[in-house]
Amino acid sequence: MAEVQAVKSLDTVKLISHLLDRHYGQQMADIWNVGLNLALRITDLLSIRFSDIQAERLLLKEGKTGKLANIKLNQKTIEIIHRIRVEHPTHFYLFQSYRNQRAGNVPPAPLSRRYVSRAFALIGEDVGIDLGTHSMRKTRGYHLYKSTKDIARVMKMLRHSSEGVTLRYIGITQEDIDKDFVELEI
């Protein structure tokens, strides 16, 4: 299995959202768009309950690390969450599986990581990128780094403990660093 990539072109980020909506529906496009804005691991993203959202903040204990993610929501994310709440007022999870609505006494559950992963991989083939569920998190980190050049800030956002891990994770290569040296003349 190939390592998934950050999406480095903002036009491609928008194209992926459009293709997910067209081929898999609004819910899958919402996962992509919210995932880009929250930079959470997919299991944490899919486990978000409406009760985890307090005013304009998301308070969530991360499954992998046990760390508290206390994230201020941006306007785009707030609008998506509000629309989902209005369209599905009885849902427990932000990205709840619709299958459970049909089953009588089955408790609500979020979409499966596997389903989302498959959809992303197929869209990735269409756009020529090794796309996966981690691509949302990597893309957010990559674009924050490109706009600020502040690796410590990216590390904090991703809740990483090593600069090297963060640079490798977001796909910053020696070629990118060389380009930065050439483009910035003082």
From TrEMBL:
Keyword Endoplasmic reticulum tagged: no
Superkingdom: Bacteria
One of the Pfam families matching this protein, by short name: Phage_integrase
A GO BP entry: DNA integration
Keywords: DNA integration, DNA recombination
A GO term for molecular function: DNA binding
All residue ranges annotated as the Tyr recombinase domain in the record: 1-182
Transmembrane regions listed in the UniProt entry: none
Entry keyword RNA-binding: no
Protein name: Tyrosine-type recombinase/integrase
Organism: Rheinheimera tangshanensis
